Amino acid sequence: MKAKMSDIAKKAGVSIAAVSLVLNGKPGVSEKTRKKIFKIIKESDYVPLRQKRESTRVIANVNLIIISDQHGVVNEIYQKNPFFDTLVQCTAEHIDKFGGTLQINTVQIESLHEEINRIISRTTVVNAIVLATDLDENDIDFIESKIKNVVFVDTSFRKLRADFVTPDNYQGAYAAGMFLLSHNYRRIGYLASNKATQNFLSRREGIRDSLATQNIKLAKNDFYVVDFANLFSENSLNCIDYNDLPEAFFCENDIIAIRLIKELTHRNFRVPRDIGIMGFDDVSTAALCSPELTTVHIPTIQIVEQAVRDLQAQVASKDFRGQKTFITTEIIEREST
């Protein structure tokens, strides 16, 4: 006879409501009790009725696949970025709430096909969340062909049918441009990464469109490209003409902005008195640099929650179709503008 929820509650010495809270990943049950309930569930081979409901299917095992590119955004430097720490931590917590386990795999983009095939050959990979910041369309197609249920985080491609959850980079950059305009900056420069990811391309489009509302164009001589992988080398920002600076710089992410503030300070420029600086991402160090960085906040926790929901929906229904979810951002005004 199949075990019921009441049987699990009785064995665990808790109420049926407590078992329900645990199965649905809700608060109100101690960590010790939650683990005890999941242990009994596994031992009893209990199958929750909620698995039949499309939006709440239990995910047993999930692979978080981090694609690393030594020449791109997710390189050795950027993996220390709090955005990625939060992404990994939140994903682990959300999977754990449902009694699942998270396996983290780091894959070098230079050997993407070989390493994905190697992971699949060693273990069964059915459900995955992929940190896809540096991937292109062909990479997305390849991974989707190898893994049954997969959600790609931190990128999106219009032409593909895959499931994406990403910050709304266009909206965030457009809002940043409008913010700078509202603070009477008119000559606005742009400091870009040499790795033109889909995210960065959307941010460039957003800035350009915001400036266009005031008939302002992003001047070619105010658009600078930096080598992101070598950003902290001594001469990394020598490409900038410090004798003819714009009134403000929008930087493609906070790491670039913080590096620029350091360089400007070294050259005796005062931020924001001499020049305004704005970033994107709202990493924790943005509030610790001097002056504190004005930036665009990305709601990482909401991104993770949506990615897990999408993965659950894929697991629950073979008829689920990939969707593109854009999570809106907000301006965080600090001292650098």
UniProtKB/TrEMBL annotation:
The HTH lacI-type domain is annotated at: 3-57
Q: Which Gene3D superfamilies match?
A: 3.40.50.2300, lambda repressor-like DNA-binding domains
Q: What keywords is this UniProt entry annotated with?
A: DNA-binding, Transcription, Transcription regulation
Question: What would be one Pfam family of this protein?
Answer: Peripla_BP_3
For this protein, the record's InterPro entries field holds: HTH_LacI, LacI/GalR-like_sensor, Lambda_DNA-bd_dom_sf, Peripla_BP_I
Q: Does the keyword Membrane apply?
A: no
**Record keywords: Aminoacyl-tRNA synthetase included?**
no
Q: Which residues form a coiled coil?
A: none
Q: Which GO terms describe its molecular function?
A: DNA-binding transcription factor activity; transcription cis-regulatory region binding
Q: What is this protein called?
A: LacI family DNA-binding transcriptional regulator
Per the UniProt record, the source organism is Lactobacillus jensenii
